[in-house]
Amino acid sequence: MEYQDILYAVRGQAAWIAINRPEKYNAFRGVTCEELIHAITKAGWDKAIAAIVLTGAGPKAFCTGGDQSAHDGAYDGRGTIGLPIEELQSLIRDIPKPVIARVNGFAIGGGNVLVTCCDLAIASSNAVFGQVGPKVGSVDPGFGTALLARVVGEKKAREMWMLCRRYPAEQALQMGLVNTVVAPEDLDAEVERWCAEIAALSPTAIAIAKKSFNLDSEAIRGISAMGMQALSLFYDSDESREGVKAFLEKRPPRFR
Questions:
Q1: Can you give the pTM of this predicted structure?
Q2: Domain assignment of residue 200, yes or no
Q3: pLDDT digits (tens, 9 = 90+) for 3-61
Q4: Which of 16, 143, 234, 255 is most buried, taking the most CB atoms under 10 A from its CB?
Q5: pLDDT tens readout for residues 194-245
Q6: For residues 22 and 27, what is the distance between their CA atoms, to the nearest angstrom?
């Protein structure tokens, strides 16, 4: 596959995968998801790779979720909602290698969910986290809700979805959403340090540990599958369409 929307590079024993749509704040469309699935699968089963780094190109954004300009009742690809997002989220969990979110700038909406799904997260001090779905007539009813609650706690996860606030990197660290926060100029060096530590350890032991962690929350995959079916019906409603329309027109939505 020749990549249009992502960048793929191998640094030492780590594969670095970056969403390369900085003009869209690294929002993903159908093609982006397909390329991420391909790249993560390739790296995930390459025995020479010890860890995978997932990030966004440029200094402004890690990822801001689904590209609203590619959304009109359904996104522009395959999958239950037009994006194979549940497949991408599951893949991050299914491969036997640790996936590290390198968070530079905004990790909003589906980007925040990707951070939640990754095994580890290292954030720049200028990173910003949060959910935005209810502002645009959407939600991530699976890993974005149930797994988030396991990561940051039930009350905080509900706050994130029901108020759609934004959280700076230090607050995300206190919540447990990320593992560490460093200065922007130190981000790459810190990620490389973590990758090197992982590469020195037993890959089989890490694979077993990762699978055993995930088994405890495996039921969330079923929640996600059911939730995405409901979401596909919601996207066809006037209420959801109003959220997308208001976002594109840069005005407050009129949901009620």
A1: 0.94
A2: no
A3: 999 999 999 999 999 999 999 999 999 999 999 999 999 999 999 999 999 999 999 99
A4: 143
A5: 999 999 999 999 999 999 999 999 999 999 999 999 999 998 899 999 998 9
A6: 8
pLDDT band (50, 70, 90) for residue 80: confident
> What is the domain-level CATH number for residue 115?
3.90.226.10
Tokens in use for 21?
């749509």
Q: How many independent structural domains does the chain possess?
A: 1
Element (H, E) at 39: helix 30-44
Q: Quick check: 100 and 195 in contact, CB under 8 A? A: yes
| Tokens matching residue 108 | 């909003």
Domain contains 177: yes
CA distances from 68 to 160, 184, 214, 215 (A): 20, 28, 31, 33
Express each pLDDT in 100-159 by its tens digit: 999 999 999 999 999 999 999 999 999 999 999 999 999 999 999 999 999 999 999 999
Compute the radius of gyration of the chain from its Cα atoms: 17
CB neighbours of 200 closer than 8 A, spacing ≥ 6? none
What is residue 53's three-state secondary structure? strand
Q: What pairing do the DSSP bridges indicate for beta strands 106-108 and 128-130?
A: parallel
Residue 74 reports pLDDT greater than 70 = no
Are the beta carbons of 17 and 8 closer than 8 angstroms?
Answer: yes
The b-or-e profile of 205-222 (16+ CB within 10 A means b, else e) is ebeeebeeebeeeeebbe
The answer to whether residue 220 is domain-embedded is no
Asked if residue 73 has pLDDT above 70, the reply is: no
Does 97 fall in a domain?
Answer: yes
- Report yes or no: 224 and 161 within 8 Å, Cβ to Cβ: no
Q: 15, 46 in Cβ contact below 8 A?
A: yes
